[in-house]
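Hi W., the flavin-adenine dinucleotide complex you wanted:
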Amino acid sequence: MNCCIAGGGPAGMMLGFLLARAGISVTVFEKHADFFRDFRGDTVHPSTLEILYELGLIEEFLKLPHSKVRTLTGQIGDTTLRLADFSHLPVHYKFIALMPQWDFLNFLAEQGRKYPSFKLEMEAEVTELVFDGDRVIGVRVKTPRGDREVRADLVVAADGRDSDVRERAGFQPVDFGSPMDVLWMRLSKKARDPSQLFGRIDFGRIFVMLDRTDYWQCAMVIPKGGLEEIRRRGIEALRADIVEMNPWLEDRVDELRDWDAIKLLTVQVNRLREWYRLGLLCIGDAAHAMSPIGGVGINLAIQDAVAAANILIPEFRRGSSIPIEALRKVQERRELPTRVTQRAQLLIQNNVIKRVLGRQGRISPPLIFRALGAIPVLQRIPARLVGLGFRREHVLPGV
Ligand SMILES: Cc1cc2nc3c(=O)[nH]c(=O)nc-3n(C[C@H](O)[C@H](O)[C@H](O)COP(=O)(O)OP(=O)(O)OC[C@H]3O[C@@H](n4cnc5c(N)ncnc54)[C@H](O)[C@@H]3O)c2cc1C
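Structure:
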């Protein structure tokens, strides 16, 4: 029995690792030559850290360079508020590890390679599905060495929000819309900079800074489709907007020399009605693209992979073809947490973000944020929602 996985993101790499660890023959096809892409989330949440703990990998993982985020702080107008405190979570590692995603993926690849049944093929793009009647029985893969067909007992589409594989399977996600997009840019970091400053909301803008140890990865949230207007105003005006929100960045905004330094990330929130068909399962962003709110996309992708492994490994071990009921069980297990998380993200998008982006001038924190900032015990609630999410998965014994 064998499995092939399209896409070496968090979902595909984690599932590949778990299957190989269980002795199942698995090939992960990743279309890029490496994992080094800038526009990926960098947050490894407490629930993912707990999975690494359950797998006995946590100590090695935490040897990689990372920063620990124990609380989330935001500045709304001129008020700085602590919004979440992870230190009371019922897990072993009570923080978010901020680590470039390529380090996390390389780590999973390295761990996978310890098992003989694990194969990772880079520069291998899944271009077609191979069918026998209704059943998916393999993929066609394009590589620099030529195209070939690979047969598999199960194909997993873990190829992200723009999944070609799900399209080839005839699936079309239901789109829930988003009022925002994100501009993604880097600014250098200096020794005297404030530490772990997360988000600033003011002047009708939202600016988030992620500490990537030697530089700041910055995200400016803009109204959907708003880039044209921003470009029309010119790069100088964008730099001025950034400085207006964070005056201490004035000495380095010139690093944003031209529009090449600024990438547009299009935010999507969508979900498939059916995540599977005979011989094929979609997981991670391919099944449900998440809004960046809460930075939970990687986390959900990992939880999908763990749930899929828990359900599918016994089926692979049985040695007969994977029944459609097993694939349905994966969707049933993961659909509710996805729905609940997306519902919460849509509520925030439409009630908070949309309003902020439409506002002129200074902003003062709404009552709910002031209450969060003033009553530390309340900070445990968002910490739980963001850090652990709904319906946490565990690696089952024997799997
Ligand atoms: C602006 C923005 C910021 C975000 N920030 C965060 C954050 O801070 N924290 C967080 O948790 N999440 C964040 N997310 C979401 C997060 O990046 C995704 O939810 C997560 O990466 C999904 O993992 P995945 O494995 O399902 O898909 P992906 O990470 O998209 O991985 C899919 C992989 O498949 C490969 N691939 C695609 N097509 C093929 C093919 N045909 N054949 C072979 N390989 C293929 C791709 O190259 C890619 O490596 C953010 C998203 C956005 C848009």
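Residues 6-12, 29-32, 40-43, 125-126, 158-161, 164-165, 182, 265, 267, 284-286, 290, 292, 295-299, 301 surround flavin-adenine dinucleotide (CB under 6 Å).

W.
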